[in-house]
Amino acid sequence: MSDAEQGKSIGTADLQAAAARLAGRVVRTPLVHSRTLSEITGAEVWLKLENQQFVASFKERGAANKILTLSEDEAKRGVIAMSAGNHAQGVAYHAHNLGIAATIVMPKSTPFVKVSRTRKLGARVRLEGEILAEAAAFARQLAADENLVFVHPYNDPAVIAGQGTVALEMLEDQPALDCILTPVGGGGLVAGCAIAAADHTSQVEVIGVEVESYAAVVQHLAGRPVSVGGATIAEGIAVRDVGALPLAILREHGIEVVTVAERMIEKAVIQMLEIEKTVTEGAGAAALAALMSDPGRFVGRKVGLIVSGGNIDTRTLANVLMRGLVRDGRLIDLVVEISDKPGALAELACIIAELRGNIVEVQHQRLFSALSANMTEVELVIEAQDTAHGSAIVAGLEAKGVRARRRDRLVLSRD
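^ thats the sequence. predicted structure below, dont judge the formating
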């Protein structure tokens, strides 16, 4: 059977059967209304909090549904999966719960914390290959050598049906939704959502969201060669090889996929934390990023956003939050020229204190400077109330005869 034929063979009945299998095995996550995000965007915003699953990702659904459909012989053989993150943990967790041996192949570059978590969930972990594609090739070969059942992260009917239960729950909890925005990596989740929406009593638009640097599905749907790559905090959707089966389903249902800028992903992560007090990974914030990137399209509509996961590295989260402070003008980076004499730095600190600025970091630069030898540059990171207050601090320094220039604007212009 071709991928297109397989895609047409998956229907709402398969999603409902998956929902019955998953009952009591995965969390029926809440669909919550966000009053503040609704006010900001002009849409009626509902959040499907899949970051509240045990492994903090919707990936549990597809993995569990696939494993639960195995025959007795397949279960005895054991399962194998290739993943650098959420799918790995979903397969490991549910295989362990069902007493099925699980092997997970991860690239050698996988962060240790993800390797450790997967092992703790009971899986045998193999670190193979420098990139995901190499790990996938090894996993396929190991599956053949050891007669293991391969659990694909997205190009599998049972996995797609499991992921589609996210949208089934959303439409049961809020039947009046006009639109569902969902992150897109390999395509399993958006394909499942498309199937769920197709048989709903009213018309529901499903829109997939990719980060600009990994717009593989957009390129496939447009018939263009796939060219992706680069650093992104949305590593959960940083996928080059899209599933043929999900693509067939997207084409069948005419699903649109849009792209969002990296900086909007960062902004969405911050908004979720500051407004909703919810931690999301980069991929999990993609749907909100799309809404904020084009709010006019959704004004007055009831929009469901799938918050697909919450597994974000703590250092990455810290960097995102600090960069957000820079963008909001709440952190400014100044280079100030002062005399290289005792008390000069103290005088500068007093001026900044009078201007109600809070010095976060300070660093002298005496050697690598074109200034006179009796002068020094001081680089200051200063906390301000907002952009206007930051500008007032700079103006106040200049009024006191202190030469200062801003470096944070360079960061902002690059973004």
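Confidence is low (pLDDT under 50) at residues 410-415.
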